[in-house]
Design brief:
The chain is mainly α. It has a single domain, classed as Up-down Bundle (Four Helix Bundle (Hemerythrin (Met), subunit A)), CATH 1.20.120. 66% of the residues lie in helices and 3% in strands. The protein has a two-stranded antiparallel ribbon.
Length: 185
């Protein structure tokens, strides 16, 4: 099957956004290291890169090989979720400012960010990625890619979130909203 031009355009747009984000991350890493930042979790970073490349390539492969199509009933809502995910990621990046990164880099003198979505939860960007990992493939009914990405991303996030929690909040309590959601507050 020939890939639909709309899918190629969508994957190209997502790829372009990711490349811009990587450039921002490199700039922010220089900012952090100039201020004494220390990087953690370097060993799991390559797995994240592979996972996100798999997402994009997997969508193209599944649509082509399994003859997946755009189905309006799922495609349009998934495009809406994808647009909301992009807005959510932008909100996270704006709230973190130069502390936003694709890597775990901690600047000892920088305060923890508790504004924007971080006011309510510790890892809103990962919620965005999880939503995107489901919605993006389902725009063209690539459900196998959505399922596999979600499984792999969940395993990767378990490592990543543990790393971030250990270095950012070694003795800090959960935000009040999280404690309340868990029935602990």
């Amino acid at each position: 099957m020939t890939l639909p031009a709309s899918l190629i355009l969508l994957i190209a747009a997502v790829t372009a956004v990711r490349l811009v984000e990587l450039a921002v991350a490199r700039r922010n890493a220089r900012w952090a290291f100039d201020r004494g930042g220390v990087e953690y979790g370097q060993r799991h970073y390559p797995a994240m890169v592979v996972l996100h490349v798999f997402l994009l390539v997997g969508i193209l492969a599944e649509v082509a090989l399994a003859d997946r199509t755009f189905t309006p009933l799922t495609g349009w809502p998934c495009l809406a979720v994808l647009a909301l995910a992009q807005a959510g990621r932008a909100w996270c990046m704006r709230a973190l400012g130069p502390q936003w990164n694709t890597r775990v880099i901690v600047v000892p003198t920088a305060p923890l960010v508790t504004t924007g979505p971080y006011r309510w939860m510790r890892h809103p960007n990962y919620l965005v990625v999880a939503c995107e990992g489901i919605a993006l493939p389902l725009v063209h009914t690539a459900w196998i890619t959505a399922f596999l990405f979600t499984l792999a991303n969940t395993a990767w996030l378990a490592v990543r979130i543990r790393t971030e929690n250990t270095v950012l909040w070694p003795a800090a309590p959960e935000p009040a909203v999280c404690r309340n959601e868990l029935g602990l507050g």
